[in-house]
Description:
Elements: H1 3-24, E1 29-33, H2 43-52, E2 57-60, H3 65-69, E3 77-82, H4 87-92, H5 94-112, E4 116-123, H6 138-151, E5 159-165, E6 169-171, E7 179-181, H7 186-199, E8 203-206, H8 209-215, H9 221-224, E9 233-235, E10 238-240, H10 243-257, E11 265-270, H11 282-297, E12 310-313, E13 370-373, H12 384-393, H13 411-425, E14 439-442, H14 460-469, H15 471-483
Parallel strand pairs: 1-2, 1-12, 2-3, 3-4, 4-5, 5-8, 8-11, 11-12
Antiparallel strand pairs: 6-7, 9-10, 13-14
Bound molecules: 2-acetamido-2-deoxy-beta-D-glucopyranose (5 copies).
Amino acid sequence: MARTEFLIWILVITLCQLQDAQTQTLSSIGVNWGAQASQPMEPSVVVNMLKENGIKKVKLFDADSWTVSAFKGTDIELMVGIPNDQLKKLSKSKDDAEDWVKDNVTKHLKHGDVNIRYVSVGNEAFLKSYNGSYIHITFPAMQRIQSAIEKAGHADQIKVTTALNADVYESSSEKPSDGDFRKDIYSVMKQIVQFLDEKNSPFVVNIYPFLSLYQSRDFPKEFAFFDSTNSQIDDDGAHYSNMFDANLDTLVASLKKIGHPNVSIVIGEIGWPTDGDINANIQYAKKFYRGFFKKMATKKGSPRHPKSVTVYLFGLFDENLKSIAPGNFERHWGIFRYDGKAKFQVDFSGKGEDKYPISAKGVRYQENKWCVLKKDVKNITSLGGAMSYACAGGDCTSLGYGCTCNEVLDGSGNASYAFNQYFQINDQSVEACDFDGVADIVSKDPSKGTCRFPVAIYSSGNMLKVMHKVGGFFIIFSLIFTLFM
Ligand SMILES: *[C@@H]1O[C@H](CO)[C@@H](O)[C@H](O)[C@H]1NC(C)=O
Ligand SMILES: *[C@@H]1O[C@H](CO)[C@@H](O)[C@H](O)[C@H]1NC(C)=O
Ligand SMILES: *[C@@H]1O[C@H](CO)[C@@H](O)[C@H](O)[C@H]1NC(C)=O
Ligand SMILES: *[C@@H]1O[C@H](CO)[C@@H](O)[C@H](O)[C@H]1NC(C)=O
Ligand SMILES: *[C@@H]1O[C@H](CO)[C@@H](O)[C@H](O)[C@H]1NC(C)=O
């Protein structure tokens, strides 16, 4: 074979493989990309990774300009979010809502060619833990954003909705058909659902079988997964062998009862964490996703929602700054690690093949340095203070019972782990590895078995700090850049 022929042949094969990876991913699958991390991944690296994995839908929790711009020129559909702390302002002022749309939507459509399709106004705003703070402002904020989007001429392309937790509805029995919206928010839910129906926007709901298992010891474990055929609930001829279907049908019944059965449903979050709890591990996450994707591949929904639904997986990466008020698992929802490496085999095509998704490329790591307890420190009991300090500033959620570092480390290993987490979160600063003289920086990886001692990455966060320093220059540069585009 001639050399050029050979090269073309290689090229064709490569292109086919790329095509393959992309078309095989189920089109109904999207991902949530949250960035509550000490060193968030660089947007361009993430967007390339999404493309390589054939992911066509992404949900964000805010509308960070740099992140949204990274989707420029891709066909990836975006759902951007408005955080709860902005709802008050937006519910009150037409001008603020219009500014929000200009700044976070119009700009990207005009200059960026970004495929924004949804705005989620608020995130799980009616959670009981918020004590009702957002009950009266969420819907007015949705209306203001809707008006601003109409005024800007984007209403055909962009739908306004709000991502809700599944706790906005409940069933008076165990039967999904007895589902109805929560009493304390019934009237506002009626307004929201009517709005969604009128505007042809989806009802976005987050459903978490893991949390049901976490919250109730009696919850039948197999009901959280998808590979059992044992019916746990019989509801007038409908049989439920997994919690997801039962929960979805509780929503279907609730929508019917409130008079809007035709509102479409999108799953805003679903997934399984891999650390931070006895039931949060790779083995269960694999099992959950495998069963879920297999179900998705059949394109069948639930007994009372036979159409398949679009789902956004939660989530893309581990986020070490997430609040652990709900539980230590909160920082471990990623399908990928903090650095974009795939954690476990998951086949986005639903064929159940034992393959890893494609990890991020071009991630830049900080130096191969770790902060550990000095060898000559023997009295571990004296380290309590240093450890609590390290764990308050760093992330020690892998040390607890049933977690990846729990049985692997001894007392001094625990201290080293905590020190290193603090050190890495602080970008390996020498001052962050002191702890009254009991810690040392080493160049040999102290990881042990399942317990990994991470090395931080350089991130968009670090770069923002740099950009801040040269802020004036950067603004002028962007202005010139925008003018000439
Ligand atoms: C646009 O969104 C960003 C990120 O969520 C937010 O910080 C900013 O305030 C928004 N812009 C306006 C004008 O509201
Ligand atoms: C809700 O109320 C509880 C108890 O009164 C309080 O501890 C908590 O901080 C409140 N949460 C919010 C978000 O206001
Ligand atoms: C829902 O859609 C069906 C089929 O299009 C239609 O017949 C029905 O009237 C709709 N129901 C409501 C309440 O809009
Ligand atoms: C270890 O440290 C604790 C707390 O500082 C102290 O009470 C104890 O006497 C020390 N034990 C030894 C063997 O030095
Ligand atoms: C390490 O720390 C964890 C979490 O604080 C604790 O559960 C575990 O018992 C500790 N291990 C040892 C050997 O001290």
